[in-house]
Amino acid sequence: MSKPLHPLALFRLSVLGPLISRHSLRRGEVKTLIRELTAQTYNIPGSRRVHLSEQTILRWYYDWKRQGIEGLVPASRRDKGQTQLSHEVQNALISYKKDNPARSLNTLISLVEKQGSVAKGKLSRATVHRFLQQQNLSARIVANQDAIERRSFVALHAGDIWQGDVLHGPSIQTQSGMRKVYLVSLMDDASRLMMHSAFCLGETALDIEGVLKQAILKRGLPHKLIIDNGPAYRSESLQSICALLEIRLIYCRPYEPEGKGKLERFHRTFREQFLNEIKVEMITGLDDLNARLWAWLERVYHRRPHAGLEGKTPLDRWRDDLVHVRQLGFKAEKIDDIFCHRIERTVRKDGTLSWEGKQFETAFALADKKINLVIDPHTNTALRVESVLGDDLGSVTPLDKIGNLNRKRQRPQKTTGASVKQGVNAVELAYQEQQDLFDIPLPEKLSDKTQEQ
């Protein structure tokens, strides 16, 4: 029974095809053919590289000439089962991995570098992975890991598509006791840059709108926004904001979140490198947690080369496409107003209206009319009233019943009979038409003739 050929040997043989198919090669032809082979791209087994060097192809060629196909079989490592890592680095890797088995290779390397045991960039992922395999520590235990395969796509330019989603976070100590927090995030599809991300005490429409506003102020306007299909994302206020900013809102189908695959992959990285490292018992509140989140995003995530970006960092990829990013322009001065909420109300006969158990008063002329109460939802403040068409109808103030006790009321001015302007009177018009029809003198004229006689 013949021994099966090694897949890598067959690949190398296919690369050498133009060389080994020639019976004889003149002086200089080998070098010329090898240069032509290096200009091509290859699907190299077990590697992400697509090009081969001249030295590699030349070495394969002479190995084939000496031993045939057997010479192309990759040799096993002589140092297999051994490591060149110093005892200090080995002990540090074992300690960090046992302390938190969910730590990724990047996190382990970063910790060892910060400890000072090895120079930055000198410790490779492959070396650490082989060492952990030897120690039976290579397996990772990640809670709630989403291993569903996603459909692959990428936006052409930064700013074309943003993805939005919410990740359930830990419970932290707040002024009102232990509260669960939620990570609300918006990611740019093309660059993987986080437009804005923040821990919130809920996952409501208001939380999502707050993150969207900060993202727009920092990074400009997206053309499309892909979000979940939940009730919070389908709020009328969020839809209105996106319409005013000319952002196309796209909802994922229920139970089919493939459209947000890149953001879900970020969530996995976030669990491994942030949530698994943070000491929740040391967090003093929501602001404290967000400060650490934003530091990690700016100092670590945005500056780390990304495999899906051909080795570029998310920040560099975003900067490459700044010319394509849609700016706020004239909408910048109206951004606060765009993110306000409008609530329909009917003004009572005394010029007052209610909102969330509070009473307000506005112009008395608006009594019995339907208006929109404009509020800032983030400060929970009533700002003004508008018509249903959006026209400004003036300010609105909290109702002051005690102040109104001595307030001078406006009353209609009374006029004397002589100063009353006579308007059109339907009865008099009919009477005049009747007199003209029969040519009957008016009473005043009859009275004048009687006096003359």
What percent strand?
15-25%
Span between termini: 152 Å
CATH topology of the largest domain: Nucleotidyltransferase, domain 5
Count of alpha and pi helical runs = 16
What is the N-to-C succession of helices and strands? Answer: HHHHHHHEEEHEHEHHHHEEEEEEEHHH
What is the overall pLDDT average?
82
Number of domains: 4
Q: What can be said about the biggest beta sheet? A: 5 strands, mixed
The CATH class of the largest domain turns out to be: Alpha Beta
Spatial strand sequence of the major β-sheet: 3-2-1-4-5
Verbal overview:
It is built from 16 helices and 12 strands. The protein is of the alpha+beta class and 453 residues long. The chain has 4 domains: 7-72, no CATH class; 87-134; 161-324, Ribonuclease H-like superfamily/Ribonuclease H (Nucleotidyltransferase, domain 5), CATH 3.30.420; 338-405, no CATH class. The strands form 3 sheets. Strands 3-2-1-4-5 form a 5-stranded mixed β-sheet, sandwiched between helices. Strands 6-9-10-11 form a 4-stranded antiparallel β-sheet. The chain has a 3-stranded antiparallel β-sheet with strand order 7-8-12, with no helix packed on it. Mean pLDDT is 82; it is low at 143-150.
